[in-house]
From TrEMBL:
It is found in: Cell membrane. CDD domains: ABC_6TM_Rv0194_D2_like. Keywords: ATP-binding, Cell inner membrane, Cell membrane, Membrane, Nucleotide-binding, Transmembrane, Transmembrane helix, Transport. Residues 59-78 are annotated as: Disordered. SMART domains: AAA. One of its GO terms (cellular component) is plasma membrane. Residues 96-379 form the ABC transmembrane type-1 domain. This is ATP-binding cassette subfamily B protein. It comes from Allocatelliglobosispora scoriae. One of its GO terms (molecular function) is ABC-type transporter activity. The chain crosses the membrane at residues 94-111, 131-149, 211-229, 235-254, 326-344. Residues 413-647 form the ABC transporter domain.
Amino acid sequence: MSMFGGGFGGPGAGPGSAPMGGLGGIGVNRGGGRQVGAGEGLPFAGIPAELMAGVAKLERSEPDHAEPADTFTHQPPRTGPLTMVSLIRGHGRTFAVAVALVIVETLLLQAGPLLVQIGIDHGIVPRDFDIVLLAAGLFAASVIAGWAASGARMRQTGRLAADTMRDLRVRVFAQLQRLSMDYYTREKAGVIMTRMTSDVEALQQLFQEGLAQFAVQGLTMVVVTVVLFSYNVQLASITLFLVVPLLLVASLWFRKASDVGYRRQRDTIGAMFSDLSENLYGVRVITAHNRQERNTAAHRAVVGAYRDANDFTGHINAIYGPGTSVIGMLGLAALLLIGGNMVLDGDLRIGELTAFVLYLNAFFAPVQQLVQLYTNYQQGRAAVLKLRELLAAAPTVPETPQAQPLPRVRGEIVFSGVTFGYEPGRPVLRDVELRIAPGETLAVVGPTGAGKSTLAKLVTRLHDPDSGRILIDGVDLRSVTLASLRRQIGVVPQEPFMFVGSLRDNIAFARPEATDDEIWSAVDAVGLRELVERTQLGLDAPLHERGQSVSSGQRQLLALARAFLAQPRVVVLDEATSNLDLRSELLVERALDRLLDGRTALLIAHRLSTAMRADRIIVVDASGILESGSHAELVATGGHYAGMYATWSART
Ligand SMILES: Nc1ncnc2c1ncn2[C@@H]1O[C@H](COP(=O)(O)OP(=O)(O)OP(=O)(O)O)[C@@H](O)[C@H]1O
């Protein structure tokens, strides 16, 4: 796509493109083509009139979400480590109601066998129909009441899960915004995604059903044991003695095996997400280099490991589930033999034996469920541990509690004895001494990997020096609040990033409150007016994810407009290495002049044509700053820069 030929349309976009591919179809009128009305070609643009009434009704029934309590600050909240209890704190009422309902639910569920026993012993045996009727009626009533209690309990635990998980997600998201760049170099995006997906979901499931079921089943076992002993101590002791040890052994085995299985599942799901996210981010490179087949095979291996992990869990479940059933059934057979004998001897009533059989059944169901729930609990616990680790990670570029807002600066930047490396023991910058005067444009040139971009990253405090200080107007960067610092430093990165949203959102990214007039003057400053006006939606024209629907030159100009709108005192510009055609280069250079006018600037220059325009140029290599001076001075000195310039001039 030529730089100014197609607007923000992107491939396949424009009038008549299919709705799903048509985000870019924003009404660019190409060479006398059909004029497209606002919204046409956009998915979901506009609601048909006949559906409006329904939508309005739906909107009225939507819950009104208040402002979130957890607003962003650079200071991590002092909430203590994440635990399950800490998650519930703040939702105490919902939790208390849920606990009460769990107790009611359990008692009602276990009323059945007791009523059967009463019906048999006091109704059927003495042939008293009224008692039979009463027992049956109460049984039915208890079932209905149990159903209502279960429903109410589920509603409560569902709400508890939804509320706590919303809080947790916001808290984790805020922490992700707070963490420094080194965290993102270390951690894979895919693994971070699993924190917010499978980990939070595991916890959600646990809060919604797991914990309540745990309580219901655990309580059931206690209630049943008490009831069994109250009926007949001897029979209860014998039966439980026969089955409990066997169950215990099986359950301990299952717990150990499922520990292994779950760990495998967790690790493999992380690997799967990482591979998926890398492939999605790199899809263009993958396509261009014909890596689809290899990458599919590699993904198959990763997915295969996940499949094996699931298979393993399935396998142990298949042994444990039916195994405990068999133990339970054998227990029932023993009960029939021993209890039947007691009934024959007159030591036990027939109704009591029936209740025993029913209760013993009720005893086994929870055991199986409890162990299954153990996996759920374990997933939740592992999720809490992982999330706790994430929430406890301290930003390596912290804002001290004593940090003061940086007043409006003149823009003097000083590097004083700055040493910095991304990895310990491997410094990229060594003892750098550098001063940029207010209003001065300093260009940095040097071989690739020399540490030029690193200088830029240090000025914006994406990293802090290992030793030495960086001062702005004489103030150490570390002693001012991050927001006040970054508000005064405009950054144009090497690879500008655009977000899904409109042009307006993207240009006003650093100052969302900017007026349209201000946005238009930024657009003018970078010479994009013609292009924006050519789209039917103007500033509302949408951009695709990562700005894929604009050319790299347009992305650079938009990034310049973004920095321009922010009106920073200091500009840090990491020049894009991509080559632009002459006209676009001219536009970028003109935009640059407007942006740098009257501001201090640190320019990481990849083109000598850019460097030449600076007030001063420094030449760096891995050993540090080699030369410093204006273009004319450096050329006259006949050093490294003069050599670079001679080569460049000969080529152009
Ligand atoms: N996040 C990182 N983690 C570890 N090492 C890094 C990281 N970023 C950069 N480096 C290393 O630091 C060194 C300097 O990188 P830097 O990006 O500052 O170079 P540069 O001079 O800007 O190069 P270029 O001209 O190619 O942009 C390089 O050797 C690079 O490998």
